[in-house]
């Protein structure tokens, strides 16, 4: 999960772990890319848009440029409206509006993983 809000990141990671989804949290896109390049690919990436250091759209552009990482499905988590979420995030598999509905998130991950 790539999310700069520590409380949200920790609570969603905790929920996902309880539901059987192993998780790793990163506070920005740069941290996430560094982790992804050193570990096996996850079944999906949960990605916030507005973050310091490297934003969601910047992360997505770099992810798509890396043929090893390009195929990992991305689920966008954002308070922005869906049309704004899609800017620069071509090919994201889902767009979930904050505040995140737990069941919708879990259903999305069950479908992808």
Summarize the structure.
The protein has 113 residues and is α/β, with parallel strands linked by helices.
Give the topology, please.
Layout: H1 6-18, H2 29-36, E1 45-48, H3 56-65, E2 74-78, H4 82-86, E3 94-97, H5 102-112
Parallel strand pairs: 1-2, 2-3
Structural overview:
With 113 residues, this protein is α/β, with parallel strands linked by helices. The protein has one domain (6-112): Response regulator (Rossmann fold, 3-Layer(aba) Sandwich), CATH 3.40.50. It is 42% helix and 12% strand. Strands 1-2-3 form a three-stranded parallel beta sheet. Helix 2 (29-36) runs parallel beside helix 3 (56-65). The chain is globular. The mean pLDDT is 91.
Relevant CATH superfamily:
Response regulator
- The percent of residues in helical segments reads 40-55%
Number of domains: 1
Shape: globular
- Count of helical stretches: 5
CATH class category label:
Alpha Beta
What strand order characterises the main sheet?
1-2-3
Distance between the termini: 14 Å
């Amino acid at each position: 999960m790539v999310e700069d809000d520590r409380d949200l990141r920790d609570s969603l990671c905790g929920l996902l772990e309880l539901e059987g989804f192993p998780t790793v949290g990163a506070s920005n896109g740069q941290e996430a890319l560094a982790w992804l390049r050193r570990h096996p690919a996850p079944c999906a990436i949960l990605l916030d848009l507005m973050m310091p250091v490297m934003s969601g759209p910047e992360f997505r552009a770099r992810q798509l440029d890396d043929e090893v990482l390009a195929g990992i499905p991305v689920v966008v988590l954002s308070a922005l409206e869906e049309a704004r979420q899609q800017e620069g995030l071509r090919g994201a598999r889902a767009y979930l509006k904050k505040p995140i509905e737990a069941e919708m998130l879990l259903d999305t991950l069950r479908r992808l993983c």
